[in-house]
Amino acid sequence: MLRIGAHISVAGGVSKAVDRAVVHGCEALQIFSKNANQWRAKPLDSSEIKRFRRRIDETAIRPAVSHASYLINLATTDAALRSLSIEAFVDELDRAHALGLLGVVIHPGTCTSGTEEEALRLVADAVRVAFKSRPRRKTMVLFEHTAGQGRTLGYRFEHFARILEYLDGSPRAGVCLDTCHLVASGYDIVSADGYNGTFLTFDRLVGLSRLRVIHANDSKRPCGSRVDRHEHIGEGCLGLDPFRRLLHDRRLAGLPMLIETEKSDSCTKPHLVVADPMDLRNLETLRRLRDEPAAARSPAL
């Protein structure tokens, strides 16, 4: 079955994220390895790297991934922004490698001028530059499916197929699907037929072997809204059925399902390692769905 986890704070040091994951009962983990709203950050502390890796081994919380800075735009045609973005992306890969992470989740980017096709090539070219600068690494780039707001890329499976084609099918390239973004971008995973059709299409265009991470978020907005607004599990336009289907889909066995739902304001102090009640609620909902007996599930499963 899928491994249930969450995006966890690294306040007080990256190793504290593992300790926080433990108190939440996480089986997988996502972090920011640096401030997501800044271009540069000081290098990771060597003792923190060692403790993070040791705690991951001790707890068997894996896979663990990082999410790249929101400032990075690998699709831009602006020379200065492109240079900054590639530099920051390489730094994200370096940090993920140091921490022993599976890879870096990143939004493909925003088309600032020209066509989507030209922008997709720019994304692939930037990733190729990053990979060539670190040729012996295995750290993956995990392109996240997007809601399709504005001129953002990645809201259609065809976009991933083109990027992979431009990267010559590199084994270091994978995909992260977000349940909120899928619905927002127009993929109906709420109905049984829509769910089955969505994953058949993904497999045909991209390949299920490329799917390495699932973000579990309900959506405040309906199918096709192209608006990215996360909601607590089961409390939005998705309801519980899509999560139930995902958790019992044998094709997805072993993948991490990570929540990025709203957190409370009570657990933000760097020295604290305490459970967030909102995260506990969403994680428990997913665990309950996963543990349901077969008789309680939809026949479509």
SSE order and pairing:
Layout: E1 3-7, H1 14-23, E2 28-31, H2 46-59, E3 64-67, H3 79-99, E4 103-106, H4 116-133, E5 140-144, H5 157-166, E6 173-178, H6 179-184, H7 192-205, E7 211-216, E8 218-219, E9 230-231, H8 241-247, E10 256-259, H9 277-290
Parallel strand pairs: 1-2, 1-10, 2-3, 3-4, 4-5, 5-6, 6-7, 7-10
Antiparallel strand pairs: 8-9
Helix pairs in contact: 1-2, 3-4, 4-5
Biggest beta-sheet profile: 8 strands, parallel, barrel
Give helix and strand order, one letter per element, not per position.
EHEHEHEHEHEHHEEEHEH
User: Which strand order do you get reading across the main beta sheet?
Assistant: 1-2-3-4-5-6-7-10
CATH topological fold name? TIM Barrel
Instruction: Bin the helical content.
Output: 25-40%
> Over the alpha carbons, how many angstroms does the gyration radius reach?
18 Å
**Shape type:** globular
The CATH architecture can be given as: Alpha-Beta Barrel
Strand content: 5-15%
CATH superfamily: Divalent-metal-dependent TIM barrel enzymes
Distance between the termini: 13 Å
Domain tally:
1
- How many strand segments? 10
CATH class: Alpha Beta
- Decide which structural class fits the backbone: alpha/beta
On the 0-100 scale, what is the average pLDDT? 96
- Poorly predicted regions are none
**Tally of contiguous helical segments:** 9
